[in-house]
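Supplementary Data S3. Sequence and structure tokens for construct A.
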Amino acid sequence: MRLRGSARLTLPDGTGADRVAETLRGTRCTVELASDFRSVAWRKLLQNAAAGLMALTGRRAGMFARADIAELTRVYLRECLRVARAEGAQLEEDVPEEILAGFRASPADLSTSILTDREAGRALEWDIRNGVVSRLGRVHGIPTPTSDVVTALLAATSDGPR
């Protein structure tokens, strides 16, 4: 693996992750061990889900400055948060606003991997970033109307037909 800058890797504590941390000690990859990995992973999933909106619009982070996009992002992330909590994630009510604030504070030309994949004509990882919210929402009886629309549009954007 080639790492061009620094990176942070978060792993679940107590699963042998200390061996990974020791292996990467002294490299540009910092390993953090999380006792509540489920919550850490779900928070990252919420961020990735919101980034799917960038792939749908073909726009970079500057789009989150728009009031309409900001409100759509809030609605979507609140929906995702309900599913995350049903799955056992311990996330605060303000997580959606924090994620949106992060996008809004980013450079306007900031991209994400899903947008980069779309621009390059590659298949999108929509199912593990967005589709999972709809599927798990159904499992828990949680309506996910925004997620259902975003997922369908990302699937069509990724898979065609063209």
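Construct B, processed identically:
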Amino acid sequence: MNARKLAFEVLRRVEEGGAYASRALDAALSSAGARDPREAGLATELVYGTLRRALALDAALAPHSKRPIAELDAPARIALRLGAFQLLVLGTPAHAAVGETVALAKAVDHGRAAGYVNAVLRALARAPRFPDPPPLATDPAGHVAAAEALPRWIAEEWVAWLGPDEALALARAMNGPAPLCLRAVERDALVDRLRAAGIAAAPAARAPGGVSVTGASVAEIARAAGGLAFQVQDEAAQLVTLLAAGELRGKKARVLDACAAPGGKAFHLAELLAPGSEVVAVELHPRKADALAREAGRRGLPAVRVICADAAKAIPGLEPGSFDAVLVDAPCAGLGTLRRHPELKLRRAPEDLPRMAVLQREIAASVARYARAGAPVTYSVCSLSRAEGPEIVRGLISDGWRRAAPPGGFPADVLTADGDLLTLPSRHGADGFFAARLVR
């Protein structure tokens, strides 16, 4: 299976099967076995590039297609986008981009759509260009959406919240690759070992346990680490944990982590606290809860206790007012992670935001009861919308909560004027997170 065929199959799993691109691609590369790294790199670029630019590719294809691209059968639509990406972004010669893409379509439907794909791509090859976006000054949301292949409703939200220039920079950053960041208790020792193995590694800019790595796979890092423990975790996620409980570092404490799977923040909390502490990790889904408990055991973190329960309701066995800190890492639309999950641009809809906000408010209000008097409750989402961020906090404040100061030494450049955490790939190089630290 060559890179184009592998990418085509992965894109079909994403669109037709609802898979996450990262997992589908990893599985496909693993099952394909040993291959030329250039082929694996091309497959990765084709998958992520096609997803990131899907809406712009559709706009470029539209003048040459008698039917709207969105109304075509999935294999034909995926083939057209894949071919258009090669023509418009990679600069692949037309004979290769068109010929191999048509062959992919023909193999799927025995030629029914192959002729159509061939005609549309050949027409595009004669005039290979994206449509010009409207001017930023007169139609900022339209410009951001068209220039960076973003759904208009997301562009409108970011322009209204952040302003046209920041929205454009953010959308552009979301179309780039996400950096690889690790978290390690023995951060400096890990950096030294990685550098000794020829891996470009450096301490992260803000998180004290963070390590930024360039040009190496996780498998290569694991070999170079030589047994030193580490976890792959974006720096923004590490900062959320530090905002929630940074002042408890080295102290014996009880911390509640709601909606805890896959466990990165719960494990980070356990590493921060003194022996004898407890981190109660609550997860709704039984399979995820089981996996979290197994991973905590594998990592040697006895402080982590997993409870399978609905955090929007009373949690069995927990006493209200018994925790020194509470972290609500709520389910969200994930708009801060589009670099890693570009398929979310194609799956999310405007109505998702108010629907998610209802659940987020329910969970935050429910788990807040478990914080002792004066203990912080930190609300966090890996999404970038006012409905899931500032408006949730505004509602909690109207219910009697107030903002609490961040732990001492917390980096000021990721805090808003209100004192909330807001990380943007365009500013900080990290995933997009919003978090607020509250106290009653």
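Residues 39 and 397 are 53 Å apart (CA to CA). The mean pLDDT is 96.
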